[in-house]
Amino acid sequence: MSSVSPPLILASASPRRSALLRQLGVVHQVVAADIDERRLDGEGIEECVLRLARAKAQAARERLIAAGALAAGAVVLGADTGVVLGDELLGKPHTREPALAMLRQLSGREHRVLTGVAVWGESGCDALLSESRVRFREITDAECERYWRSGEPRDKAGAYAIQGLAAAFIAGLHGSYSGVMGLPLYETAELLQRAGVSIWQECGE
User: Fold this and answer.
1) Could you tell me the sign of the dihedral formed by the alpha carbons of 80, 85, 91, 94, in that order?
2) 87 in Cβ contact with 48 (< 8 Å)
3) Can you give the residue range of the structural domain that contains 123?
4) Integer Cα distance of 29 and 36 in angstroms
5) In a domain, 199, yes or no
6) Catalytic residue among 80, 87, 126, 155
7) In a domain, 18, yes or no
8) Number of C-alpha atoms within 13 angstroms, CB side, residue 101?
């Protein structure tokens, strides 16, 4: 591995993912990727999450190439998170009714959270999938309504943010807390190091 870590691009405007990368001590630039996040007909949920993570990384990379702004040796990281209840992949609600419906579905039940992480480097694309299980306590309609009014559920997978107010709903978690937030740090560190990107960049050798 080179002693100088290659530049890292985060293909996401998510402040949570950027904060998690900083937790790993990784300096990075943010270039948002705008892609169609709909699941394809007949596509498995795991395959969908990994495909979208790869597509986000590729979209940001191509955007930089088109602008002549991709630094030599740069690595691009994309991630996608899906909340899965039974065989249903829950979306990211923009309005009140879908959000309340999702919260009622999750109430008192266990669901899966899948987060795919993909890294585009000079040798191509590498990806890993994190799976966690989250159990909600029973939540009342009044709580769902108050939570929606907080603004937090809007555009969040499954209509909640585990690191925010929704922490009060979480009765159990098996897996990766950071993965449920949107960027599993174990898998991310593994992929970055495979691509030659150093973690703990301010810690020295």
Assistant:
1) negative
2) no
3) 8-194
4) 22
5) no
6) 80
7) yes
8) 9
In a domain, 202, yes or no: no
Give residue for tokens 């270039």: 31
Q: Which residue has the tokens 């992480």?
A: 117
The domain total for the chain is 1
Number of C-beta neighbours around residue 180 at 10 A: 27
Distances in whole angstroms, Cα of residue 94 to Cα of each of 4, 29, 49, 117, 157: 42, 27, 20, 24, 10
SS3 59: helix
CATH number at residue 52: 3.90.950.10
Tokens of 198: 């150093």
| Token pair belonging to 62 | 């191509």
Q: Tens-of-pLDDT digits for all 205 residues of the chain? A: 446 899 999 999 999 999 999 999 999 999 999 899 999 999 999 999 999 999 999 999 999 999 999 999 999 999 999 999 999 999 999 999 999 999 999 999 999 999 999 999 988 999 999 999 999 999 999 999 999 999 999 999 999 999 999 999 999 999 999 999 999 999 999 999 999 999 998 775 5
Q: What is the DSSP letter of 70?
A: -
The pTM for the full model equals: 0.93
Are the C-beta atoms of residues 6 and 198 closer than 8 Å to each other? no
Cβ density class 79-110: b for 16+ within 10 Å, e for less: bbbbbbeeeebbbbbeeeeebbebbebbbeee
Q: Is 155 a catalytic residue?
A: no
Residue 105 lies in a domain: yes
